[in-house]
Design brief:
alpha+beta; 4-stranded antiparallel beta sheet; 4 domains; Tetrahydropterin Synthase, Chain A; 11 strands
């Protein structure tokens, strides 16, 4: 009976050291007497030898923020803006957020060569190096205005190259803020304001030119229409219009118009050889 109890107790103790769990979003790494098992262990129940040790690393997306802003304080923030030089030698500060994750299959190799504190040992220094290399190819004004997206993409590409062998996958690099010396910021803002003012004046000149062209085209069209009308107003046409007007008048109306004494018809102005006539009525 005593041996059975001892056997059961031994089995329980053995199970306590042999059964482990790898949590959701983690990868397990086994190592025994200084030898790392190259096969990563997935989430869930894990059976191992009692003398093997289990280490877990997160394979979820992680965030590393390098910023001096108070609202960015937290476990993912380093509380330190990255300061570096632009192509013209100006010192600028960049607030950067990097999203990354550990590649499942390379977790044992990373654990063996770097250790569980790989973020501080390899990721953060790589981010600093990438920022300095990339920013050195841009002028301060571009960082402040048009090149922010390009800078983020170049940093992301360089980080991907630096950390790919470590098993760290860079998902995104967000350039949150660029801190320039105040006098440089003021100069850039004045330049931008001046450029916008010039563009506005150019637009107004173009608008006025287009309006002038529109008016010329409108006047030309009116002149052509008038010429066509004038060419069509012959004496016979005017006489016909006169007759139509008389026909539409109410009975008893009196109209005085000059008439041609030769034929009694209304005088067409400009017709040679006609003088003042008599009135006619309807």
């Amino acid at each position: 009976m005593g041996l059975v109890v001892i056997a059961i107790a031994g089995a329980i103790v053995l199970a306590m050291f042999s059964v482990r769990f790898v949590n959701v979003g983690e990868v397990g790494v086994l190592h025994t007497f200084g030898v790392v098992d190259p096969i990563p262990k997935p989430e869930g129940l894990l059976l191992k030898t009692p003398w093997a040790s289990l280490e877990t690393l997160s394979v979820r997306t992680q965030q590393l923020t390098m910023s001096s802003r108070s609202e960015d304080s937290g476990p993912s923030a380093t509380d330190q803006t990255v300061r570096t030089l632009t192509s013209e030698g100006l010192t600028v500060g960049l607030d950067i957020t990097t999203l990354f994750r550990l590649e499942f299959s390379k977790a044992p190799d990373l654990f063996q060569k770097v250790g569980p504190n790989y973020v501080e040992i390899v990721v953060r220094p790589a981010i600093r190096d990438a920022i300095r290399d990339v920013v050195g190819g841009f002028v301060a004004e571009a960082l402040y205005t048009t090149a922010r997206t390009e800078v983020s993409e170049k940093i992301e590409d360089q980080l991907g190259d630096l950390l790919a062998d470590r098993g760290v996958v860079i998902e995104s690099v967000l350039l949150r803020d660029v801190d320039l010396p105040q006098q440089i910021t003021d100069a850039i803002e004045r330049k931008i304001a001046a450029e916008q003012s010039i563009q506005e004046r150019v637009f107004r000149v173009q608008e006025a030119t287009e309006e002038a062209n529109r008016r010329v085209e409108e006047a030309t069209g009116i002149a052509k229409a008038n010429n066509l009308i004038n060419a069509s107003l012959t004496a016979a046409v005017l006489q016909d219009k006169y007759i139509q007007a008389l026909a539409q008048m109410e009975s008893g109306s009196v109209v005085y118009v000059p008439t041609n004494p030769e034929n009694g018809l209304p005088v067409i102005l400009g017709t040679p050889g006609v003088g003042a006539g008599t009135g006619t009525s309807k």
